[in-house]
Amino acid sequence: MNRTPLLLLGGGGHCAAVIDVIEATDAYEIVGIIESPESQTECVLGYPVIGTDDDLPYWVQKVPACLITVGQLKSSAVRRRLFQQVLDLGGHLPSVISPFAKVAASAIIGDGTVVMHHALVNPLAEIGANSIINSKALVEHDVRIGAHCHIATGALLNGGVTVGDDCLIGSGSMVVQSTRIIGKTIVGAGSVVVKDIVESGVYIGQPAARHLKMEAED
To answer: Active-site residues (predicted)?
Structure first.
């Protein structure tokens, strides 16, 4: 089997987790990792850091298939910027799905999205570009997730939920069926969303409520 050369952008902890997924697929040959100029990282799980963001024009010409391996907590800004930069340089971003995940044949997975180990994406779900569906997350039937989102470990999105662009749905959180969440929203770990979120911000609790103090701290 000929494996596709792949360039990884970002060398932190999320990169290590994604490498494990990539290796499990046996579909890609990781050429190396691009890091931020200030990073001291030299390699991740044996794969070398071969350049910084400043070297992207050179490396994308050599290795056009790229994957964003920067994590996403408070903001999607870095992932969004790198995604657009790869496209502007003529590269492309494959979706990568763990062989230990279950993705329905009718589900749609956007470019550059990673579906991690033991995640479940059910029929007629749609996930936008450059998103993370993390380990053991559940994306139920007819869910719509925008671009540049992170559905964190063990999060549960029930049937018909809509999540806008640039959102984080935190670990172990739950969103009840048919609920809508506006873009640029953070739902804290362990929270339960029981009604539509129509104003961007940070929401925590059971039921989830807007947390102005946490927004001010950010």
So the answer is: 141
